[in-house]
Request: fold
Amino acid sequence: MTLIEKFYPVMKPWLFRLDAEKAHTLTVKMMVMAHRLGMLQSVVDTPQQARTVMGLSFPNPLGLGAGMDKSASAVDAWGAVGFGCVEVGTLTPRPQPGNPKPRLFRLPEHQALINRMGFNNPGIHSAVAKLKKRKTKAVVGVNIGKNFDTPNEKAVDDYLHCLKAAYPVADYVAVNISSPNTKGLRDLQAEDSVRQLISALKTEQASLKKEHGKTVPLLVKIAPDLNDMQIEALARVFNEQNIDGVIATNTTIDRAAVAGHALEKEAGGLSGAPVLERSNLVLQAFRMLLKEQVPLIGIGGITQGAHAAEKMKLGAALVQVYSGLVYRGPALVREVLATLAARSV
Ligand SMILES: Cc1cc2nc3c(=O)[nH]c(=O)nc-3n(C[C@H](O)[C@H](O)[C@H](O)COP(=O)(O)O)c2cc1C
Reply:
């Protein structure tokens, strides 16, 4: 067991007494410090779990979901802990403070979180400058969005701005149209809107490929709150536009799984254990509808190794975690990778 695995269970009760966002900020700062002092050791050594997806070499199939490192300030530390991929962001063209605090809540009884952060971030250019200096071997995805005050009619411009800025430093770019905390963002998942957006981004990707001499895959991150017709429409567009990958899923606005909880009515996206089932259904539906060569990244509700294996079985090529890490700490990284290795996935 590594130092950080021993340390997290000791720290967790203290961290959980703090406001959730303060605890998060403090944890990330401590990780960066520990990494600088050479105290972080990977919880895994799994060369046999390396794989190539979308032409990228992933040291292992487990990634850190977007939102944990919005500003790309701890990428090397996350890589050192053992993640094979770190998705930074969501980043917007201009820096923005996000929604008023408090905006992050724990529901420990459900191993869940509710957040309405609202894309608090230092802007794409700040993150790009940091990513230029990274040393990690982990694949780094840059998750992009629009500023809160950009109307949906101009959203394409924001995404294009971020794609151009991120292209030279990103291993892949993820287009976030599924956060529930930016007014109207999910409307971009409507068939005509998404077609217009993806078509513009794919055209730009082609010209950036010529300019930079490398292909940076373009993925879309989708919501779990989609009905069958919406799923079919999105899959149609993704297939026709040759999207490079799909990340399923973001947080849910559905509260059925936490009905009766004191925080049930807090606005925002629910994540962690309660989103597992719905995320899996969406993942499975997309696997059936998308062209075989389009990989899926499965995220939503992984709090045990077996959940990650289940997502792989349903058709994910890679998996990511966020809320599970808050509840389980780095032990979850070890457990997920050990389970996947034992089941040869
Ligand atoms: C506090 C918080 C902030 C998040 N911020 C983002 C974000 O900026 N962009 C994004 O695409 N997803 C964001 N997410 C969603 C996660 O990446 C993930 O899709 C979701 O939480 C489901 O996975 P989980 O159950 O493992 O947490 C955020 C989640 C949480 C809990």
In short: The mean pLDDT is 95. The chain has one domain: 3-342.
